[in-house]
Here is the input.
Amino acid sequence: MKLSQGVEWGLHCAALLALAPPGMTVRREGLAGHYALPVTYLAKHLQAMARAGVLHAVTGPRGGYRLARPPGDITVLDVVEAIEGPAPPFVCQEIRQRGTGAVPPESCRRPCAIDALMTQADRAWRDSLRAVTIADLVDRYPPGLRERNAELVAKAAS
Amino acid sequence: MKLSQGVEWGLHCAALLALAPPGMTVRREGLAGHYALPVTYLAKHLQAMARAGVLHAVTGPRGGYRLARPPGDITVLDVVEAIEGPAPPFVCQEIRQRGTGAVPPESCRRPCAIDALMTQADRAWRDSLRAVTIADLVDRYPPGLRERNAELVAKAAS
Here is the structure.
């Protein structure tokens, strides 16, 4: 089980955009340069975040990305699901209904106990990521970083 | 992010072995047949569970697998980590220290806020899986399944 590198990239970019001057956008080259990320690969993740309604993409010569909502209204889970998709990591194949031990369908009206507990664990993971917003994330930056990144992103914004 | 199919297989097999007569082993063919699983592919997961100390492998003509500990002492997380390995799904690449926005190393003594929250979510997931044992799992079977599986596994055991 492995999360895409795009999760780290997307969260850092969202946190950086949270510090951009209101209404301004940052080009993907500006975001990529800030963290030394490959532009074309980052672009795919930024597009996924725009499709998921986390970012707003502005086209044209002064175009770029900004957060689609205030940073306090975007959870870490929103970004993770934008990049990874909402599919749970465990997908029950109902093997209890197969083989010499096959359980008859009438005994399988309730979800399999294994499916149920994996779903519960997935919910605990998502709840944890839903409890933190992009605004919270920026508040947890070490002293001075918020101000420094705000300055840098203002220069990159248009 | 996706868990290996082996997680479902491993948990079902561990739950089945929890019902085997004490001290008896079940051959991999017996486990595979119960759930109509491909024997050679299942064998890899059973071996991984044995390496992780979840199963005990007995070699020879009357060999096979049994649980290495009482089912109340094996957690679902033990099985999941045996199959998936203990590596967390998120691995921080410290991109905060790269690019035009690079944070100096002296400001990076504490883990990145993003790394910290992803680690916290992973802990919530593992805590949830650690809270359930293989014995609990069998207790959650629908009525009659425990007895039926115990009968079937006794026939397959040697």
Summary: Chain B has a mean pLDDT of 95. The radius of gyration of chain B is 20 Å. Chain B touches chain A through 60 residues (CB under 8 Å).
